[in-house]
Amino acid sequence: MNQYRLERRATERIASGHLWVWREELRPAPSGEVCETALLSDERGRSLGVALIDTRSPVTARLITRRRFLDAGWLSTRLAAAIAWRQRVVPTTGQSAFRLVHAEADSLPGLIIDRFGDGFALQLNMRNYEPWIETITAELEHHYPVRLLVADSEGERKRLTGEDSRTTYQLNHLWFESDLVAGPKTGAFLDQRENYAALAGWLERLGIQGRGLDLFSSSGGFALHAAPRLDHVDAVDSAVGSAARIHANARHNGFANIRAIEVDVRQFLRSSNQARRRYACVIADPPAFAKHRRQLQEALRAYYELNVKALGALDTEGLFVTCSCSQAVSSEELVEVLRQAAQETNRNLTLLERRGQSIDHRESVLIPESSYLKCLYWLAGPRQI
After folding, report:
1. Where along the chain do the CATH 3.30.750.80 domains lie?
2. Cis (ω within 30 of 0) for the bond into 109?
3. What value does the mean pLDDT of the chain take?
4. Secondary structure of the chain in HEC code, one letter for each residue
5. What is the structure's pLDDT at 294?
6. pLDDT at 18
7. Per the confidence metrics, is the pTM higher than 0.90?
8. What CATH superfamily is the domain 3-65?
9. How much is the average pLDDT of 129-148?
10. Contact 120/149 with Cβ under 8 angstroms?
């Protein structure tokens, strides 16, 4: 097993509980294409543990254990612990889709596993997990019926088992259908699961009625949860096939009041504002505008422009939900964007609730990157002064 020494900065980061090491922090620096398990040591040669090394990964090295071995038993033990935690915190009825493994937050760096009913999606952000697919599958089969298994490595998704890549599942007692190969992300976005339910709760609590607008709807998550409480919901997304997905999910649940619109969201908002079309509830859940902190200012401008236009589509009074899945954008920075957007649109926004990702998308205080989703609920009204 090869050994790499770390620079002092990387050693201090590992000592603080983080697990990432960048290529330029390894000594000697890996030459060429490398995918291996290696020992890490500090600048004095003292052992730090065992890491996965993959020079194709954006993060070259990820510490996986402070012991000097890695085997199937170790992997099964960590998988079992991650699954056991979900069994404690995710409701057992009406929920058959959630994240089973959230990478570093579950002490399985670079590995993500999402459950969609009897379908499972593996995202291998380190190629080192590829030889362990059978071990992973065996652990999943020990706890769940596994009909479909899809693996994503370097952005290429492949069906490993199952006759086709489609599956059905439940979120908050609603039925959804997804294609784990052709669908978004690992098949669908699951991190808003609890926020979907919160939307339904706020609509009922505030007595909101009328029309709703779900921007960047993807599979219709917010739209389906709003449909029982609103007269009509427009679900807008630009992704090819999104309208068909949303309509299919609406049919699964017997909703006839959802209109799926496959068009650029900004274009839709321009035409909606020109037509003075207004909604009692507007949800804006865009994709990440910033992958890195260096993109922060550009992202904040994009969030500002989106929220100004989205507020323009809201009734004089109504429920406004805005989200950011950019890890580089803090909750405080998003609130500041909303303050500026409220000033621009001559609105008053009363904060109802700050929420984050669903609990199955586990967050570790030692791994800031494990916490990324912000979901803010506002009651909008006119400025009184």
Report:
1. 72-176
2. no
3. 96
4. CCEEEECHHHHHHHHCCCCEECHHHEECCCCCCCEEEEEEECCCCCEEEEEEEECCCCCCEEEEECCCCCCHHHHHHHHHHHHHHHHHHCCCCCCCEEEEEEHHHHCCCCEEEEEECCEEEEEECCHHHHHHHHHHHHHHHHHCCCCEEEEEECCEEEEEECCCCEEEEEECCEEEEEECCCCCCCCCCCCCHHHHHHHHHHHHHHCCCCEEEEECCCCCHHHHHHHHHCCEEEEEECCCCHHHHHHHHHHHCCCCCEEEEECCHHHHHHHHHHCCCCEEEEEECCCCCCCCHHHHHHHHHHHHHHHHHHHHCEEEEEEEEEEECCCCCCHHHHHHHHHHHHHHCCEEEEEEEEECCCCCCCCECCEHHHCCCEEEEEEEEECCC
5. 85
6. 96
7. yes
8. PUA domain (2.30.130.10)
9. 97
10. yes
Classify domain 193-382 at the CATH class level.
alpha beta
In tens, the pLDDT along 252-293 reads 999 999 999 999 999 999 999 888 899 999 999 999 998 887
For the chain, what percent of residues have pLDDT higher than 70? 100
Which residues does 370 contact at the CB level (< 8 Å), separation at least 6?
Answer: 102, 103, 104, 105, 362, 363, 364
Residues 50, 64: Cα–Cα separation, whole Å: 6
CATH T-level topology, domain 72-176: Transcription Regulator spoIIAA (3.30.750)
Structure-block tokens of residue 206: 């505030």
pLDDT score recorded for residue 154: 92
Please give the single-letter amino acid code of residue 69: F
Q: At 210, which amino acid appears? A: G
Angle between helices 72-89 and 133-143 (to 10 degrees): 40
Residue 68 scores a pLDDT above 80: no
